[in-house]
Amino acid sequence: MRFTVNLDKVKEILSTKTISQTLITSSGTIVNGILGLVFYFVLARQLGPAAFGTFSVSVAILTLIGDIANVGSDTGMVRFVGKYINTDKIRAFKFLKLSLKVRIMIWLAVLSIGWFLVPGIVNGFFAKPELIFPMRLALIGVGSYLLFSFSTYALQSLQKYWIWNGVNIGTNLIRLLITLALIYFGFLSANTFLSVYILVPFLGFLAGLMFLPKFFDVENEKEVAGEFFRYNIWIALFTLVAAFGGRVDTLLSTSLLSLHDVGIYSSALQLSSIIPQIVFAIGTVVAPKLAGFDSDLKAKLYLKKVQIFTIFMAIFGIAVGIPLSKFIIPILYGGSYLQAIGPFIVLLFAQAIFLISVPAHTSIFYYFEYPKLFVFISFGNILITVGAGWYLISNYGFMGAAYAVLLGNIFNFIVPGLWVLAKFRHSKNEN
Fold it and tell me: What does the pLDDT read at residue 429?
């Protein structure tokens, strides 16, 4: 009888609209992730560990600045567009227009100021002058990063998941095809591939705009600025801290290790990134739904189903990923990347914990509307990652970087999870 009940429960979970939509986004994310991984595999084999290290550090800086410059616009857009799109479309469109204008203005400021600051920062922190030009390219890439994320998050907030898939997959496919063409014609350098990485998302942004409603026509978008930025201020602070904390392993590795070792670590990090992409796919579906719930009972039932699903995915990923890594890494990256197997296994456990954290994290942002909590959690994560990372990387090289990520993800799982449980208990006692 127990087996029958459990089986019925599993069938119920798998038949929900959320799971079906998650399967849409997850399948698209898997295809997108495979295209992205092939892109990185090709680059790693063509460039070798040292040049691949240069490319990887540049991308890490690009995404770090892009996440900070976003000032919480992605999360705010999903929150408010998802909240108003069915009740007040004009107001929802104002949030779209405001978000786009903010991104463009911040990017122009970052590009104009950062261009002159790059040499001093690179020489002072990394002591690697060869990174100056790639870092300047990365500043241009901040623009494509911000604009492309606008299109994808706007589609997410409108729950247009098939189009969301198409824009993401199409962009990655075009980038891969251009890269293969450049390799065929002999254009082999980290800066060339970095330029492709930067420019193609501009096309993705334009493609996404074609499927969005005509929000440009709305006027007085400043009217929603107060609501937008009151919510976003904590998102922005969290993103500032989390963006740095999420890449401190690469930054410390670049400062303490050779670019060759950075390339080895980056290859392991990139291969493990399929799990964060699944996390993103699940969050794409879960976030707007949580934003629309009006009772704890609905939220708890929904979160339980998502939690079961994420635990299953995490266990499956570890069970499959570890034994395959010893065969996949040398085949995909080449013999010069055999050392990446060790850090990959550690990172796989870290990312599995990240996956299990999805229900707690998304409920804090979109149901409880308390992003402030993650500012403090991110500070704690940085203290753990920087403190442990500096010691571990100095003593254990790129393996130390992987251990630091694992410690940070354990912290990021335990604290939000306990907070959500306490919040639901407190709410139940009040009722």
Answer: 57
